Amino acid sequence: MSERKQINFTIVPEDDRTQARSYANFCAISHTPFDFTLTFCEVMPLSEDDVRHAEAEHAVRAPVRAKVVLPLQVLPGLIVALQEHARLLQDSAPPAWPKGPVH
Fold first, then answer.
1. Within its chain, how far is the Cα of 3 from the centroid?
2. Contact at 8 Å (CB) between 43 and 60?
3. N or C: which end of the chain has fewer CB within 10 A?
4. Which residues contact 38 (CB under 8 A, 6 or more apart)?
């Protein structure tokens, strides 16, 4: 019977500069019992015609820029990392943080 050896390591993203960046200013979140899906969209300022459609449909369509599916095991670490980075940013130069969730 072979013994399992534990190896500690850090995963470092390899940035080869060929991966295109996408801008998103909205994130929709959904989940299943197995994973979380983060759908990143870019919401542009609305024209008068867009506003009329939004009033009629009670929805604004936004182009999806990226869709990321995360296994449940990744979520707690992601939440901690986001909170830590937000705290560091707020401590270094306080931005105008919104007073509550933006939906």
1. 39
2. yes
3. N
4. 27, 28, 29, 67, 68, 69, 70
Token pair of 23 as six digits: 């801008």
Count CB neighbours of 28 within 10 A. 13
Query: For residue 87, what are its two tokens?
Result: 């705290």
CA distances from 2 to 5, 9, 72 (A): 9, 22, 30
Q: How many CB atoms lie within 10 A of CB 50?
A: 13
Rounded Cα gap, residues 86 and 97, in angstroms: 10
Whether the predicted pLDDT of 102 surpasses 80: no
**What would the pLDDT profile of 33-92 be if each residue is shown by its tens digit?**
999 999 999 999 989 998 998 899 998 989 999 999 999 999 999 999 999 998 888 888
Four-residue CA torsion sign, 17, 89, 73, 40: negative
- Please state the length of the chain: 103
